[in-house]
Amino acid sequence: MTEKLKLWTKEDVDRLLQNIDYEAAKKDTHTLNYYRDENDEYDELEVAVFVVLEWVRDDHEHNIKSSTIRGTQRMGWFWDALNARKRREEYGDVGDHYLISEDEARETVKAMGLDLDDAKRHLIDSFTKANGYAPVMLPVDPKWETRRNDALKRRGHILN
Q: What is the pTM of this model?
């Protein structure tokens, strides 16, 4: 069975946008998570920290990522890191990444000469500009410890 391609008109898009419950969307919560990534692509270890604005949903086991920034000593802040990560995954190179705490992220990027608050501010400001309202931010991901421990187990670390 073949389906006809729907050609969207401006009226179709306007009608669709009228049906979005923006007040409900504003109640969704977000959090910032930090991932340390180790990659030896250049024959030496390169450490990166991904700062990720994530959408936290009770009905999902994992968060839904919405925006990402990558920091390295060699490149500084890369403001569109989600696309960089996707390109790496296409070639089977996912590095060795795992969740770290905000304090660990702050110390790691500080050693690179970067300020973690710059990345945090950029993500929140970009979200606000794109959506017309600021995200409702949780101080910490409620599933952070479980997600971090699951990742450590996958990497073969023994937890007490």
A: 0.72
